[in-house]
Structures are given as structure tokens and as C-alpha cells.
Amino acid sequence: MALHIQMSEEAEREYKRAKLRGMISSFGASSALCLTFALTLTFTVIYFAQDPPAEFLAYVPPAEDLPPRAVPTTPQLSSKAATPSNTVAPSVIVSTGAAPVAMAQIDIPMEDSADDGISIDIGIGLDTGLGDDLGEAGGGMGSSQPAGSALEGTLYDLKQSKGGAPTKVAPGGKVNMEELYATVGGYLKNWSQSALGRFYKSPAKLYASNFFLPMANASLAPDAFQCAQKVKPAAWLVVYRGKVKSPITATIRFVGTGDDFLGVRFDGKVVLEGGYRLPSAYKKGDMSKVYISGAQGREYRAAIKAGKDSAHREYEFIQYPGIPTWNNTNTEIGGLTAGKHIKVKEGVSYPIEIAITEEGGKFGYVLMWENLSDNPVIKNGKVIGGKKLYLFRTNFSMPEKSELQKLIGKHAAGKEMEWPEFDSDSPIWVAVP
């Protein structure tokens, strides 16, 4: 007798559902395993097939935001060209501050340029190199390009208004000296640009990095500022403005003179007035104090020596040993003028303004400085000079006699240029924004 057992309809339906769930679970597990294997293989291939990424290294330079000053003990950076590699990922250095970085030397071919004449040469200055980011341009009256570290100069023609009309300084074409020095003296009371706003000013700016022009004709300035067709070579005023960073911590003083006048305002204070004229001493109707040559000059220097001139306390008139005769042994002005003592701190920025003016004829100026904290020369208990006389410069520019004479060209004063000496390793007062 055979035994036959038949599954109920409800049990059969449950069985089929269980079988379907098992098939779906098996398929899902197999698919997940295959996907995992594929992703693992893909990432493995990508990782081993690619080159390692470039490595970025953060470099934090010293707390100096500009290149070091040029002093004799500071070694110059040098670099050699490196051989590039195609198999090694480069290391990129990211600097978080401004600092000099040695770079591989690159030779770039330059096309020859034609000489465009004396006015262009004067604008360019002695050199157009950028040397270590500070530049070497800006000799003479300055460069026409604001490259590197320099002070910005503007020429003002005091003979005409900004619209070109004659002023009281030269109403009939001839310079009225009293009006000229009343105007310049008025400006020097506070060195405000607004006091010069009514006069014609050169559209072109010049960027000067040293102030060393021993002898030239007054026609040089309008030519250099590219306004010779508009400005006659007399009764002009040039002002250079900017900020400079002190290269040392010391007590210093500026030394120099001008023909007719050189003035320096440093950190908001007038620290040097020198030359054949003293515009700041003008009083209405009295020109006797303006002329500081001859008898008036002797009286002026005697008052300073006796300590009776409060506006020029600490001033001295010095004939420096070893310096040729350009306004040094000149008895009319007593030699080079040494100004007020100034305390400066290394790395601190100070505003500076330099004013130069000329009546007409020959003109020139030199601006240097002394470090009175560096073994000062003492005579009768009084400081009479520093150990060295430095050129005041804001970049690596350095006057060279033959180049400066060539630069002046047709504006030469008619005799050999006399040359005050200065230390060739003069520290740099970097010009900053």
C-alpha cells in the first residue's frame, strides 16, 4: 500500500516565497562581492600607476618684509642653474612673507635699442637694471620708470600758474627774487603740496634713488622732466617724496648742500637746509637773511656756532678731509652743511621729502649722511663728524663720474665736474610704499 503525501496550497505558496527570497539574497551577495572586488582593483591600479603629487613645503622667512640692506658685511646671493628632472616630482616652496630667494640664472636675449637723445637719457638715469628687486636706476635727476626702490619727484615752475599764466615770480619774464623766495619760503613752512597747487607742475614724474649732481646748467631739470618746451630754466622747484626704511639703529645726520638750495624734511621735521640761499628765513621786504653767502653767510654761521639760531641747532659747516673743493672749501657757504642729529631704528619706515630749487644759471646738489653712533669724531668734546661719509641712496645705484657727465651732455656747466667723495659701501635706505 503506497503512502502519498501532498503539500497543501498554503504551504506550497510559502515554500515558493522562501525559495525566491533565497535566490534574491544569493544574487545580491554575489553582486556586492563583485563590485567590491572591482573597486579595490581600480583604486589599486590608480594608486600605483600615478606619480606621487608635488610636495608643498611652507617656508616662513625672518620677520623682514624687504631685502637686506647693502652693507660691506652682507654677502650677495648667488645661484647656479639646476638640471631639471623628469622623473622626480618637484618640491614647491611657498613663502608666507617677502624675502630674497636665490633663483637659477636665465639669459634672456635683448634687442638693441636706438639712442633717442639727451632728454630720454636724462629720464632713464644711470642704469635700468633691477638688481635684487631694488634696482639700480634713478641716478642723475631720476628715472622715468618707477622700477625698483626710489623716491618720486615732481618739478614745479614757479613762474607760471597751472594754466600757463605768468605769476608774480616772473610777471614780465624776468625773475623777481623777492617773490621767488617768498614763495619757496612759504612752501617750506610746512612742506604742504597744496601750497604749490596753483603752479604749473611737470606731467612727467622722475624716480630718484640717489641725490648726487655736482654741476650742471639749470636747463637740465626741465629737460629731465620732459617739459623743456614749457618751462624756462629758472625759478623752478623740484620735490622728491616717499618713505624709506632705516638700514641701522643709530644717531645720524644728513650732510650736503645745494646750489641754490637743498632741503630735507625727515619724519615730519626739517633736518637739513644748505646751499647759497635760505628761503625759510625770508621775511617780507627783507632779503638779507636769505643770502647765506658773503657777509650774510658769515653772520649766519657765527650765530649757529654760538648756538643763537634755534632753528638750526646742531648744524655745522665742515670741510671734510679728502673731499675735493665742490662747495666744501668754498668760503661763501662754509663748506658742506651737516644738519640736525636724528635717532633712527633699523627696519622702521620714515617719510622723507627732498627739495631743490634754482634761480637760474648753474645748479647742483649732493646729499650724504653720517652715522654718529659709529666711532664719531670728537673735537673739544663735540661731535664733528662720523667715521664715514655715506651716499644717501635707496637702491644699488652708485654715481660714476664719466657716466654722469655723459648723462648731463649738452647741459654741462662748462668745466670739469668736481667730485665729493663718499663710502662706496653706503647702506641702502629702501624706499617703501
Q: Can you describe what's shown?
A:
There is one protein chain. The protein is an alpha+beta fold and 433 residues long. It has one domain. Helices cover 19% and strands 25% of the residues. The protein contains six helices and 19 strands. It has helices at residues 9-49, 118-124, 177-187, 220-224, 294-305, 401-408, and strands spanning 55-59, 91-95, 151-161, 199-201, 206-208, 212-217, 236-245, 250-259, 261-266, 269-275, 316-318, 336-338, 342-344, 349-358, 362-371, 377-379, 382-385, 389-391, 430-432. Strands 3, 4, 5, 7, 9, 10, 14 and 19 form an eight-stranded antiparallel beta sheet that branches. The radius of gyration is 37 Å and the shape is elongated. The termini are far apart.
Q: What's the gist of this structure?
A:
The protein is of the alpha+beta class. It has 6 helices and 19 strands.
List keywords for this structure.
elongated; 433 residues; 7-stranded antiparallel beta sheet; alpha+beta; 8-stranded antiparallel beta sheet
The structural domain count equals 1
Number of helical regions: 6
Shape: elongated
Average residue pLDDT: 77
Residues in β-strands, percent: 15-25%
Helix content: 10-25%
Number of E-state strands: 19
